[in-house]
Give the backbone structure.
Amino acid sequence: MMNLTQDLAKLIRLTGDRAKLDAKANGTYIVYKTAEGQIVKEYSTGVIEKMNEQELNHE
């Protein structure tokens, strides 16, 4: 069971790494939830900004 958990963690990490590469190639950003529960945008420049309520509720 531990190998499955480790494999899943590795796949998640690789997916995040790929998303960062795609964002850099396309001049965009990735969005994720921090360990503290805050939703943020991370730009390819390394700049991280918190998303506000209006952005989170965009429809």
